[in-house]
Amino acid sequence: MNHPTETTKYIFVTGGVTSSLGKGIISASLAKLLQARGYSVTIQKLDPYINIDPGTLNPYEHGECYVTVDGAETDLDLGHYERFLNVPTTQANNVTTGRIYQTVIEKERRGDYLGETVQVIPHITDEIKHRIKLLGENNQYDFVITEIGGTVGDIESLPYIESIRQLKWEMGPRCLVIHLTLVPYLAAAKELKTKPTQHSVKTMLEYGVQPDILVCRTERPLNEAIRNKIALFCNVDATSVIESIDTNSIYKVPILMKEEKLDLVALKKTRMAANCKPDLEKWEEFLFRLENPAKTVNIGLVGKYVELVDAYKSIIESLIHAGTSNDCKVNLKLIHSEEINRVNVKKHLEGLSGIVVAPGFGDRGIDGKIAAISYARRNKIPFFGICLGMQCAVVEFARNVLNLKKAHSTEMDPGTPDPVIDFMEEQKKINMKGGTMRLGAFPCVVNPGSKVHGIYGKELISERHRHRYEFNNTYLKLFNDNGFEASGFNPGTDLVEIMELKNHPWFVGVQFHPEYSSTVAQPHPLFVDFVRAAVDKAEKN
Ligand code: GLN
Fold this sequence. Notes:
Largest sheet: 9 strands, mixed
Strand content: 15-25%
Number of helices: 18
Number of strands: 23
Shape: globular
Bound molecules: glutamine
C-alpha cells in the first residue's frame, strides 16, 4: 500500500434522534469506500442489550440472527458488513453489554480485581475499550469502524459513549466520531427541521463527545442554508455535514456517500492519504444490473415471521444478489406459513416460479410449510428449503411419497413413530439454550454428479450452520431409493447436509444457511442457480 499507515484509526458511528436511521448501512458504506481506496477495514457492532448474544432473541425483537464462520450468533448488521465488504467477520465483531459484564464478573470472581470496587468506570469501560482495540491489534486493519447500537441518550448506551470519550482523549485524531441523525421534513411547515439534530448533538456534548461528522438522514435534499445552520449549531464545518437521503436500495448508499465525500472528510480528519480514487467499478456494475433488469420473476418466501422483513434479511438480500446475477428482478412475495393449508395452498402460491421455505424453530406454521413444499414438488416449481425448510421437505416426502403418514421431526412431535428428522447426538447432553446449537462453518462433501455438485463446481464446500436437529440416517436408503437423495455429507460425521429430488427441475434442501455467505461481489451459487431455474420456469409457462 502506498499510504503511510502507522497505526489503526478508530471510527465510531453513533445514532441520534431515533433508531432505524441506518447506522449499519452508513458504517458498511464508509467501509466500502475506504476499502475501494485500498485500505483494510473491519466493522464492529457494540450492542447495549444484556443478552450475551442475539442467539436467544426472538426475531420479532431483533430481526435475524446472523451467524459468522467461527460460529458466533450475531446482530444482523454483520450481514451487511459482509455483504458490502466481502470479508468475513468473527465473534470479535459483535459484542453486547451482556458479554462485557460477563467478562468483568468472571474476572472479579477469579480475583483479578482483588481489593478494588468493581465499577462501570473504569472496569466496564475498560472492557469495552479492550474489545474495540482488540480489532486494531498489530495494525491488522487501517480502520476499525465501531457502530454503537441504540440511540444516544438511552441509559444503556452510556458506558459506550463514555468509552468513546476516553478513547478520543487518549488517541486524539486516531479517533473519529460520526453521528447519524435525522433531519425531518415537516409537511405543514414545508421545511426541513434541524432542531432534533441540535438536541442530539447537545446530548453527545453533555457526555463529553463532540461529533466530528454529522450524517443527516433526510427525505429531502439538504440545501446550503440548512448545512450551514447545522454546522453552526453543532460545532462542525459545513463540509462535515453529510446528507444521507432516502433511497430505494441500500446498495446505492456507498455511491451517495461518495458523492457527499464522506470518505474524503473521514480520511482528512484521521490524517490518512486520499491520493487514489476509489475503485468501485464492480460495485457500479452490480448497481447497473440491479437497476436495469431484463426480466422479472415471482418468487415466494414462506415463513412465520414474514410481517417483519428483518427476520429474513440475509435470504432477501441473497435473492437480490442472485437476481442481479441473472439480470432479473426478483419480485418477492412473503407468505405467512400459518395462513397456508392444503385447501388454499394453490391460491397462495399460484403464479410463483420459485418457492423458498425459510429456516425456523418450533411448531408454529409447520403445516403451512409442508403444504407449500408439497405444492412445489407436485407442480414442479423450483423449491429451495433452508435448514428447517429442508427438514420440512424431508417430512413432506416421508408422509406423501414414502407413505409414513405420521413422520415428523422430533422437534415438533417427540413421539412420532417415524422420526425422519431427529435430535443430533451431540445435542442430547446439552441443556443450556444460549450458543449451544451446531454453529458456524463446517465442511461438506458433495456427491460428484449431483445437481449441487454442478452448481458449486467442486466437491468440498464449507457452509455455516445453526441447528439442533438433523436428517435421521436410518431412513437414508429409503429416501435415496425413492428419488429424494442425500447429495452432501459432513465428511467427519456423515450428517446429511444436502437433499435433492430427482425428476424435478430444481428441488434442493440444505441443512446449512447459504444466505449468510452471499455478498455483492460473490452471490451465492445456490441462490443464483435457484433464481435461474425460476426464470426458466417462468419462461416455460
Ligand atoms: N429448528 C431446526 C433445528 O434446530 C432448524 C433450525 C433452523 O432452521 N435454523 O434443527
